[in-house]
Amino acid sequence: MRQPEFEAISPEELELLQLERLQSTLTRAYRQVKFYRRRFEAVGLTPEAIQNLSDLGRLPFTTREDLSENYPYGLFAVPLKDIVRIVSSPGTTDRPLVVGYTSQDLRLWLELLARLFTAAGVGREDIVQLILPPGLANWRRDLQAGAEYLGASVIPAATLNFAKELMVMRDYRTSVLITTPSLARHLLTVMAALGMTPAELALKRALLVAAPLPQAVRQELEAALNLEISRAYGITEVMGPGLAFSCEVKGGFHFNADHFYPEVVDPDSGRPLPPGEEGELVITTLSTMAFPLIRFRSGDKTALNPEPCPCGRTLPRLTGILGRVDAICSVGGIKVHPDHLRALLREALGGHLPPHSWRVAEEDGLEVLEVEIVLDEVLFSDEVKALEGLCRRIRRHLQDHLGINGRVALKEEVETVAG
Questions:
Q1: Domain 337-412, what architecture?
Q2: 264 Cβ contact list (under 8 Å, min separation 6)
Q3: The pTM is what?
Q4: CA distance 284 to 257
Q5: Per residue in 9-60, pLDDT tens?
Q6: What CATH topology corresponds to 1-326?
Q7: Using CA atoms, how far apart are residues 279 and 273, in angstroms rounded to an integer?
């Protein structure tokens, strides 16, 4: 363990620590963030009214829509002069979600990432290679920084094609691969095309992030690549990767509950659910200075397991990420909200949005976004080059704004005949 005094803390000590940090966070949010002060006043409460952890349920939820509406700095709890990093991610509208960090926040996050890597069996002797899509730029940076902080040698994420990535992996003797489940499956496809076998690689472990990993896919990848797979869970809005991590027991994700308080609630009623019951994960930050979040609805479906793990850690575990409770979907680990997608399509089409549909498809292990747009009278052209240019423009717009691979198809409008 990286920090056994916290990772193996007793339940009684953890509860006291959480309550102390929660009360400090609530007071800071109430005093420094107008949004939260209004929220407290709307339900007739002050931070002093929260006397125990169960009282937290008396406060309203924070949503991604709230983050968008307070763009860009409305939820910061410190002056801008104390912010050393500003990051953003796609929101539910055309406004991105903006998160700030103080230097203290960044130090905390490096320690939590070091916990993650230690649990994954990564050490100073390892060579770590990151293969992550541009749309996960924040995760690229954080995971690289965490591995470097631990003392490992790191090959940063690049824009190489997959054949070159595999060449680097073989020649540099990479021992740990950090990637997404879909990219890991695509690497297998490329390896087969190149005639490359796992025996040519020095890989011992893979850390798969940013998307769910079904057990069958995990077993397929471990067998095909001859390595052990570890997992990490995080949310960009709540500091990014490192919220929770797997261990050698593979019994779920150890949640860093000394710095983030987890609840699982019924996604419809908002009612807190008991341990073991599946619902939506809600997170309250306990230690972050710049960007406190109170009861943030993650949209991820999971359950809590408070029992100690055979690995010796006592932090509560998430039983896994079992899907979404909202309309957001994942394309290769990159979250896409339908409203944001519609806004981007409208922008690419000059303000016009005809009937359309979309789905996530798989191509050689890669997840791609397939968009089908009805070719109505506004978009119609009898020139093939014009229509091909239209498709390219839409694909480029989605790539520029979401960092995802897309396929665009135009469909002729079907006339409805009365009678």
A1: 2-Layer Sandwich (3.30)
A2: 272, 273, 277, 278, 279, 280, 281, 282, 302, 303, 304
A3: 0.91
A4: 10
A5: 999 999 999 999 999 999 999 999 999 999 999 999 999 999 999 999 999 9
A6: Rossmann fold (3.40.50)
A7: 7
